[in-house]
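Researcher: Going back to the complex we discussed earlier. I've cleaned up the inputs and rechecked each line, so this should be the final set. Can you rerun the prediction on the complete assembly and write out the structure?
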Amino acid sequence: MSVAVATLEHHLRAARADGRRLLIPYVMAGVVPDWLDLVRGAAEAGADAVEIGLPFSDPMLDGPTVQQAAALATGRGGRPRSLLDELAGLDVDVPLVVMTYANVAMTLTPERGVGGFLDHLAAVGVRGVIVPDLPLDESAEYLARAAEAEVAAVLLAAPSCGDDRCREIARASSGFVYCMSSMRTTGERDALATTARETARRLKGMTDLPVVTGFGISTVEHAVEACVDADGVVVGSALMRMLVDGAPVAEVVDAVAAFRRALSSVGG
Amino acid sequence: MSVEEVVSTGAMRAPDAAGRFGRFGGRYLPEALIPAAQAVETAFREAWADAAFTTEYRRLLATYVGRPTPLTECARLSEALGVRVLLKREDLAHTGSHKINNVLGQALLARRMGKRKLIAETGAGQHGVATATAAALLGLTCTVYMGQTDVRRQEMNVFRMELLGAEVVPVTSANGVGTLKEATNGALRAWVNETEDAHYCVGSTMGPHPYPWMVREFQRVIGEEARAQCADRLPTAVPDVVVACVGGGSNAAGTFAGFVDTPARLVGVEAAGGSAVEKGKLGVLHGFMSHFLQDDDSQVLEAHSISAGLDYPGVGPEHVHLAETGRVHYTSVTDDQAVRALKLVTRTEGILPALESAHALAWVVDAAATGELAAGSTVLVTLSGRGDKDIQQVREHLR
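Model: Rerun complete. Updated structure for the full complex:
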């Protein structure tokens, strides 16, 4: 990874200061043989960071598309450790954020627990991490080890979280605050949930960290609408569905570029 | 001292404030579900301390479930094995298994919380049937998530749930396998999507805090009754050994809760292809930290058992804690052993046990033969359910 990439938070704040709306595409590691080309292509097409999913057998917060992407990755022999090895050689100019589940984070290096996992992420150049089934109350050690490893632990806030909880989450989160758009698992939807903007607005009033909305951002219109309140969006299933349906990586990169263009019309 | 007082001084206490039994348990959920889990905990703490709630619960257990279930002395089986075997007959509870004890408690709690719907996962179908039953009784809607493989193996239970008015949703993982693990993934996802209206009625002593504790509390009636029945029946008041099968571990937890403070030896029997206590590694799945069967790449494996109810790669957190403290001994038996025990008990006692319960019986048969159970000792076995649902599996296995 390029040495020019600062910390995740610094990088995203700088982009926001330039008047950009943040775009974070999600790529399931190993979903197709040339998945690293997609990460590289997404960065070149204007992503501000790329979220990299590590496959887990039981992704409880993921809908059918990401489940299928994970099954494709594991079906090709991709495993968290081997996929991180592949990622280690990648040279891109945007920060990478790894997303996986608590069991992977805690058992990838069984003798060293979550600290070993975070050190490993740092060693392959990853700047941020998202573990959706590690809520605040179970995160004390995780947050401390992430700080030591200098990997930003991004926490999620959901529409069901009360203001006090949202404030605690925003205070403990690093890099950005991940705003869950609705009370739904990941996946494409017809319309942006009404809770998306409302939750982002609440979070924006509590923190100066970038607030990035994800879950169900299915079209450029959804992205633009979400960014009325949020600083940016994560786009996952909409891109992964293209790969699951057999589209070549170049088409997915074009889709990322389309999101970038649409968001550029909002920025400023 | 009353049974309640004895039990409350025993080693199976409430978990700590973080929902942990020793190192195990906790609440590993997305933030989105934390408010829902907290609401269940608050509601349960209040309800369990509210005489109006517990009176209504006890009334339903007596008049609807048919409790207390009998303690059956097995004359011919005892003679065959050389040990005195007593069965705690949860197979005679309404719907045919112990699952109803927990479900009625949670359904009453759901109503108290103003929820209109129950969501459940099911393996063998017993918990699904019990949940559909409670939903019908209390006028709630019900959706049951069931692995595609189990939908096939437990066809009649699927129809039974549908007759009761429940919707059964088959769950397949993207790699095509579908047992209790996938069913639980499906139910958890549904809980995220419907957290406002629905109560997630977890079927065993697993899941995020407060479920492992709450489900054990709703099942402790098994152990309390058996304790009192043994006190009436046995000159020693308590049996030498208390045995129960362990999948997630709810009938075992409920049984052990009644005997944990006695000298009785406690034995939990897992399926050989799903023995998480013995062969699992520390991990996190379905909201709790426990032992899970998993590979070296942090992927959770499918369990393999003839019994759909024991086909789970993990085990309730309190059981791993009880194993670590040494209070309960956990072991496992194979499909063959379970089926042989099922046949033996059916022929000697005229009682067809569920395949799950047959695992506990198989250990007794084996331990009596090897001398691990001393001749003449007294053994209490929780017969967690009836075997009618398993006739097809047993028939195929014997072919």
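Model: Worth noting: Chain B touches chain A through 37 residues (CB under 8 Å).
Researcher: Good, that matches what I expected from the previous run.
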